[in-house]
Amino acid sequence: MGGSSREGGKVKPLKQPKKDKKDVDDEDRAHQEKLRADAKARKDMADALKKGKKK
């Protein structure tokens, strides 16, 4: 039963080569920048609220 071969088991798929970073066009870049700005604005507002409550 306990043979040394790996017959009959689930075969692992071969690793896929890493994909090159896709070229980001200006529209995508602008969208990412907007998302970062929105996240920063939300964080700043949350920090301001926390500071206001501590007074």
List keywords for this structure.
1 helix, 55 residues, mainly alpha, elongated, 0% strand
What does this entry look like structurally?
Residues 1-55 are annotated as: Disordered. Pfam families: TMA7. Residues 20-55 have a biased composition (Basic and acidic residues). The chain is mostly helical and 55 residues long. 53% of the residues lie in helices and 0% in strands. The protein has 1 helix and no strands. The radius of gyration is 26 Å and the shape is elongated. The chain has one helix at 26-54.
Tally of contiguous helical segments: 1
Net shape: elongated
- How much strand? under 5%
Question: What is the typical, i.e. mean, pLDDT?
Answer: 79
Q: Percentage of helical residues?
A: 40-55%
pLDDT < 50 stretches: none
According to DSSP, the number of beta strands is 0
Class computed from helices, strands and strand pairing: mainly alpha
* Series of H and E elements: H
How far apart, in Å, are the first and last alpha carbons?
Answer: 74 Å
The whole-angstrom Rg is 26 Å
Q: What composes the largest sheet?
A: none
Biased composition (Basic and acidic residues): 20-55
Pfam family, one: TMA7
InterPro entries: TMA7
Region (Disordered): 1-55
In short:
The protein has 55 residues and is mainly α. It is 53% helix and 0% strand.
Task: Produce the secondary structure layout.
Elements: H1 26-54
